[in-house]
Amino acid sequence: MDYQQTVLSAIDYIENNMFEENVYHHLFDHIFLSKYHFHRIFYTMTNETIADYIRKRKFTIIAKKLKFTNEKIIDIAFACGYNSHESFTRAFKKYFSISPSEFRKNPNENKLLVMDCIDKRKLSNIYFQSNYVPYFESIDQLTLTGIRGTVDLMTVNVQSYWSQLLEYFSDNCIQPNGDYLYMIWESVGCDPRKIDFSEQQNVFIGGVFYDAKKKMDQSLISNQAYACFRLTQTFEYLHDLYSYIYFSWFKKSDMILDDNYIIERYSKDFSFEQKTGFMEILVPIKKQQMSRK
């Protein structure tokens, strides 16, 4: 049986009946598998339970209505299956931690809480991520030389900084030491839930270089153990990988997040446009201490 096609058919049904009453229960009338069996298949292939997927899609659509339309909040509530303004506000606030009216005034939803519809390509990518095993590396303290700037993960405008960086090194005959370039999320620190993928974030971009003229900025990578998640060719799903790491991988790992910066490490031949090279998300980790009884 083609399980991928079965999951895609279920997703298609959910999309077309999102706000119908009991969509979760009616879904199984269209899937010729037992509930238990299909639950396992759906979770294995999407890294989401069916109920969580429906919930995320519902609130994603609601958030877009609030953000991009002038519909009254009460009309959105009724159209989305709620029978009162109060019940709608209560459900929305429970999910996004702010009320619908507050969200409409400042519509910057956390990208880790919303979800676009899963298509065949993304389904394959999520399945890869959910079965992804990182490798672990201890990095000695590194002093990086480079530049500071702002980037966002929607336009991925980091390459312009690399071009400036490499041009400066070339013009000043600065020789690199090592095979990588690094990006440190300085405005986010170690809390990925603070990342808004459409907003500009303060970052440091550089490598291990000796700058004889001391004209460039410097930053320090502390001695630290990292879980390393490598991406090749599927860079457009970078925010999905972040979501997987912090909301799924940590839950099933015996590691916890350590208090240090999120780091992205890039091979020198890395290119978003050409889809060459690789990038890695370096997550600072430490062993979870067992509680004493």
From TrEMBL:
Residues 8-106 form the HTH araC/xylS-type domain. Keywords: DNA-binding, Transcription, Transcription regulation. The keyword DNA-binding applies. The keyword Transcription regulation applies. Coiled coil: none annotated. SUPFAM superfamilies: Homeodomain-like, Probable bacterial effector-binding domain. PANTHER family: RIGHT ORIGIN-BINDING PROTEIN. This is AraC family transcriptional regulator.
